[in-house]
Amino acid sequence: xxxxxxxxxxxxxxxxxxxxIASMAGINDSAFANEYAGSAGLVVMGxxxxxxxxxxxxxxxxxxxxxxxxSQDPIKFLQDEIDAVKGDCVVAVxxxxxxxxxxxxxxxxxxxxxxxxxxxxxxRQEEMIRIGVGEAFMRDIPxxxxxxxxxxxxxxxxxxxxxxxxxDDVQLSRIIESAGADILHVDAMKEGAGTxxxxxxxxxxxxxxxxIGNNSVTDFSVAKDIFARxxxxxxxxxxxxxxxxxINDLVNxxxxxxxxxxxxxxxxxICGGEGDLRALAFCCLPVKPCAVHSKIKKLGxxxxxxxxxxxxxxxxxxxxxxxxxxxxSLVWCCKISKPCYLRDGVLDMLGMSSAEYMRLxxxxxxxxxxxxxxxxxxx
Length: 379
Ligand SMILES: Cc1cc2nc3c(=O)[nH]c(=O)nc-3n(C[C@H](O)[C@H](O)[C@H](O)COP(=O)(O)O)c2cc1C
Ligand code: SF4
Ligand code: SF4
Known about the structure:
Layout: H1 2-6, E1 8-10, E2 13-15, E3 19-21, H2 30-36, E4 42-49, H3 52-63, H4 74-83, E5 90-96, H5 100-112, E6 116-120, H6 126-130, H7 141-152, E7 157-163, H8 169-179, E8 183-187, H9 197-204, E9 210-214, H10 220-228, E10 233-236, H11 238-242, H12 246-261, H13 292-298, H14 303-314, H15 341-350, H16 354-371
Parallel strand pairs: 3-4, 3-10, 4-5, 5-6, 6-7, 7-8, 8-9, 9-10
Antiparallel strand pairs: 1-2
Helix pairs in contact: 4-5, 7-8, 12-16, 14-16
Bound molecules: flavin mononucleotide and iron/sulfur cluster (2 copies).
């Protein structure tokens, strides 16, 4: 039921909702997942250290007080961990290795189990970076690309976990997408500034990849802000430790929101400066000087081409109607959260719910991005 409500599919994986638990080394293992994943759509366990180098580095981290998962037989440990998870939540394993071979074995285990492999290009602990693991991948693009390609050859659904504001986020995200990763998991951390919503928006406007937004989610309002910048899913780490009921609360709220408005990660309007390119679905007929012009230019479109594109989409759909609205058709109308008796009068007349209206706007946004002259993931 909820699978259809959100329609979130990546390769062989279907998420029942867009709420995930993020990996936390030394904390988030199968026992933790069984206790806290509850109704989550995804639990990312780990990070698991898969070779001697990473297990040695992890021991050094433990010696200075950090939590880590170490094992004498890391590949068997990984298999046992995946097997031990109960419930219907999709499982991902966040992994580290200084050599490719253990990662390939882990990819095989993950894909056989219908799970996701997540390459940790995020860890900033010096002991890991020194051996070329974690954050080191963000600075070694040829190796990152090569390993993504080789891991994808196993058929695994592959996520890459990065941290924003370390290197050029746009360039890195595009490289990860074009190398063939299925999911980009972004810790939108900005030192001293909480969640960097602009980083999520920047990445959304430069890729089409399935995007998980992460950092400092403690309630639904933060999650909603990340969704509104284009994340397909949000993940929570520390928030779960402080509030054991947070995941259930987020799942309940996002489910109610989706039922009510039909597009849980709908963007904000472009005029406010916070709307990503998907928000062109809510833009007016481009007849006045405003922010729409710089946005459509990024897609290589003239004002006329943009107008034609929206009208082509509307033809034969309910968005074609709306003589009494500002520009004569619902295709130019605002987001449902903006109160408007003119638009709502047309929706009433058509017997169209708010959720149906927003679902069509979502399709329109995809149509605009699909048919742009310059695709967002091209420079
Ligand atoms: C104790 C701890 C351990 C972590 N270990 C990992 C890890 O092994 N791999 C990884 O990709 N991220 C790791 N993270 C980062 C989290 O997955 C997440 O990106 C970060 O904590 C920000 O999200 P939050 O504000 O919801 O906690 C860890 C975070 C914490 C707090
Ligand atoms: S076209 Fe309308 S909705 Fe879009 S940016 Fe301009 S004023 Fe705002
Ligand atoms: S009729 Fe209302 S919803 Fe439509 S464009 Fe005008 S103000 Fe926006």
